[in-house]
Amino acid sequence: MHERNIFKNDKPNFEQLAQEYPEFTPYLHKGSSGKPYVNFKDPAALRALSVVLLKKYFDLNLEIPLDRLIPTIPLRLNYLHWIEDLLNLNETEECGDEFLGIDVGCGASCIYGLLGNKMNQWKFIATDVDETSCKYAQQNVEQNHMQHQITIQHKRENESFFESVLSQHPQSQTKLFHFTMCNPPFFAEVYDGHVTYNRTNRRPSPASTSTATESERATEGGEVSFVERMIDESLRTKNAIRWYTTMLGKKSSMKPLIQRLKDAEITNYTTTEFSQGRTTRWGLAWSFSDNRPPSKLLEKPSKKKKKAKPFIMSFTRDFFVETEILNIKSTAKSTEIDAVVWDIVKVVEKELLDLQISLDAPEHIELMNSGAYELTGKAFANTWIHSRQKRRKEKRLELVQDGTTICETQDGTNSCETQDGTTSCEIKPNNQDGNSISSLNQASASFANNSNHPNQDGTQSYGKRTLDSISFENESEIRNPKKLKMDDEDSVNKYTNKEHETNTNELKMEKISTELTMLETNIVECPLFTFSCTASTAKQLHATGGRIPALSMLCLEGDREQFHQLFLHLKNKLHGVQISPL
C-alpha cells in the first residue's frame, strides 16, 4: 500500500462506522469470537462500505447502482498517489495549478475524478462507453458540486481514446493534459472472469464479488489488446499528454506491453505494483517527454525478509543411552539440569566440529533468569549431505589400513580376511563375474595403501602408483572394466582401458589434477550461513516440554535452507525430536 494512503496505518473500524452511519449497520456481522466483519461477497455490503468510507474520510456523497462496478477505495487511492509521484509534486508546486487529466472508462462512480479533485483539485475529462454509467457519473459529479472541474463525456465503442477528447475540448489546444488514467476490462471474454481454478490450486477464492457490467469486465483481446491500442494511439498524440498510465489486472500482461513500448521505441516508461489486502494490481506508465520519472519510482521495492524462527529439538532415551549422559527427570534440581545441559553442549560441539564447522567456545548465558549455554558457528561448506556414504567409505579405508584384504573364496563369494587369517565378513558378488569384483576390490586396497603418503620433500603425493604394479589373481577376466573411479579431496583418478596396436589390452590410470590445493580449498571468504545453538530447558527456550533438556538452533545470516538441512542432520544423528515453540 502506498505510503501516503490514508488506510495504510488507519484501518477502518467497522463498529465505529456503524455507529456514525446507521445505514451501514445492517451489513455488519459478528463472528463466533465476537469480532465484527463485513461479507464482501454481498454487493450491497460492499457498496455500503465504499459509500460510508467516502463520506467519512473525503466528505464525498456517492450513488452506485448494484449492477455496475463498485470501486474499492484503497486501490483507487494507491493509483492516484502513484500519479502524484509521476507528476513529481512537491511543496513548491501547488497541486491546484490546473492539472488536467483524462479518465478513460470512469464508470458509474467516477471515483478517480471525485477523489482526484477532492485531494488535489485536479480537473478531469471522464469518458465511458456505457450511457447508463455516464448518467450516474454526471449525477455523482453534480451532487458533489464538481461539475465545473469534471466533465463527463460519452464515447462510442470504437471511438479513439484520446483524440476524441483532444478534438472536443478547446482547452486542450492551449493547455497540456498532464496524465491519463484507465482501469481497462481485464478479460478477453466474459467467462474468463468466472474461472473456477487457478494455477497453483492453493490460492483462496476471491474475498469479494464483482458487479461489473460486460463492458467493464471484458473486451476483445483482453487488457493486453486494449492497452496496445492505447499505446498505438499515443504515438499520434504524443506530447499532447505528459503521462499515459493504466492499471493492469494480470501480472502476465506486463511483459507483452513493455515489449510493445520497446517496439515503438518508447524508452521513457515505468511500472509499479498496487498492493492492498489480498488484491494486487499493476501499473504501467509511459511518456514522450524528456522528464524521467522520479528515481524512487524506478527502484524496485525490497521485500522484507521474515524474521527467522529457531528450530528446537528435545532428546529421546536413545540419545542418553548412546552418549551415557544422565537422563534426568523434569523434577530434578536446577544444578543437575545445568550439568546435563552442559554435557549436551559438548556432544553438539563435537558433532559440529566433526562436520568441519567453525565454532566459538561455548558461553554461559542468562536466559529467563536461568542458566543456558550458547554456541555460535559458521558453516563454509555443506559437509553433512551424504554423510552415511562418507562414513562407509572411511570405514572401508580403515579396514584396508589395518591390513584387511578382500579376496575371493572357492564358492565365488568375497570375504574380508585380516592379518591373523580370520574371516571378518563375507561379500557376495553383484554379478556373475565374481573374479572381477575381487580383483577390483584388491586394486582399491592396493591403491589406498600406496596413496596419500608424504614424499621426501614433504609434499603430498596422490595416486602415483599405476596399475602395472598391482597384481591381479585373474587378469584375463578384468580386461574390459567399464570405469573405475577413486576420488580424494584434491584429485580424481580415473582408470581407463586403452587398446594398443598390438591388440593387447592394458589398464592405465589417468590423473586429473584440480586447480586448487588442499590449502586453498580451506580458505573461504564467505560462509554459507552463521548460526547459534542454545542448550537449556524447553521452557526457557519458549517451547513445549517443560523442564526437559532441549536444543534451539537459529540461523543468524545466510542460506536458511542449508541451515535447515544441518538441523535435520543433527536431529537424526542425536536421536532428537523436533518440538514446537510456544
Structure description:
Strands 5-4-3-6-7-9-8 form a seven-stranded mixed β-sheet, sandwiched between helices. Strands 10, 11, 12, 13, 22, 23 and 24 form a seven-stranded antiparallel β-sheet that branches. A three-stranded antiparallel β-sheet has the order 14-15-16, with helices on one face. The chain contains 17 helices and 24 strands. With 582 residues, it is α+β, with helices and mostly antiparallel strands. Helix 9 packs parallel to helix 10. Among the domains are: 68-191 and 207-297, Rossmann fold, CATH 3.40.50; 311-383 and 527-579, TATA-Binding Protein (2-Layer Sandwich).
Describe the structure concisely:
The chain is an alpha+beta fold and 582 residues long. It is built from 17 helices and 24 strands. The protein has a 7-stranded mixed β-sheet, with helices on both faces.
- Unreliable stretches (pLDDT < 50, length at least 5) are 90-96, 190-207, 423-441, 443-524
Helix content: 25-40%
Q: Determine the number of helices (DSSP H or I, runs of at least 4 residues).
A: 17
Q: Give the radius of gyration.
A: 37 Å
CATH fold label of the domain at 68-191 and 207-297: Rossmann fold
* Shape call: elongated
Give the terminus-to-terminus CA distance: 32 Å
The CATH fourth-level homologous superfamily of the domain at 68-191 and 207-297: Vaccinia Virus protein VP39
